[in-house]
Amino acid sequence: MFQVMLYSSVVVALIFGICLFFLLPNWIAGWFGFDKSTTGGSILANLIEGLIRVIIFLMYVWLVSKNKEIKRVFEYHGAEHNAIYAYESMEKLTVENAIKHTTLHPRCGTTYLFVVIITSIILFSFVKWRSPLVNMALRLLLLPLVAGVAYEIFKLAAKTGFKPLRAISYPGLMLQKITTQPPDESQVEVALAALKAVVDD
C-alpha cells in the first residue's frame, strides 16, 4: 500500500506540473486574437505562452512559501546548501563551518527549473502554432528535449567563469531567496548527517 501511495503521488505530481506549467499557459495564450498562422504570429504566441509560464511559476513558488510547513522544508533546503558548500570547500563537516555559508547555490534544482522554463520559451518559439490539442501534444513530446538541453546549459553555467553564461543562473539564484531559508543549527545537523551518510558510502 505504501508503494502504491508513493508512486501514485509521483504520477499525480507529474500530471499537475505538466498541466499547470505547460498546458495551461498554452491554453491561455490561445485566447489572444492575433493571427498565429504566420511566422511572426506563431513566435509571438509562443513568447506570450512563455511569459505566462514564468508568471505562473513565480506565483506558485511565492504562494507555497506562505505555508508554514513548506517554509520549514525551505529551511531544510537552505541547510542542505550550507552542508554542500562546506563539503565543496573541503572544510570539516561541522555545524559551525556549514552555517556560515550562503543558502544560494548555482546547482540548485530551483535554478534548473527556471532554466527549463527559459529553454522551453526559446525552443517552443520555433514550433508553429497549431490547434490546442496539437500544441499540447507537441509540448509533451518536446519536454524530454527541453529538459535535456536545459540540463546541459544549467550544468555549464554553474561551472563556467564566462559571465554572460553564468548570468543564466542569476534569476534562479534570486528565486532561491524564496525556496531556501536560513536554517537553525538542528536543521544543519540533519543536513550534515545526510551528507556524511552519502560521502561515507
Describe it for me?
- With 201 residues, the protein is mainly α.
- 77% of the residues lie in helices and 0% in strands.
- The protein is built from nine helices and no strands.
- The longest helix has 28 residues, at 2-29.
- The chain is elongated, with a radius of gyration of 20 Å.
- The mean pLDDT is 89.
Number of helices: 9
Q: Which term fits the overall shape?
A: elongated
Mean pLDDT over the residues:
89
Q: Describe the sheet with the most strands.
A: none
* Model regions low in confidence, pLDDT < 50 over at least 5 residues: none
Helical content band: over 70%
List the defining traits of the structure above:
single chain; 201 residues; mainly alpha; 9 helices; 77% helix; 0% strand
Helix-strand layout with pairing:
Elements: H1 2-29, H2 39-64, H3 68-88, H4 95-99, H5 109-124, H6 132-159, H7 163-166, H8 170-179, H9 185-200
Helix pairs in contact: 1-2, 1-6, 2-5, 3-9, 5-6, 5-8
Brief synopsis:
The protein has 201 residues and is an all-alpha fold. Helix content is 77%, strand content 0%.
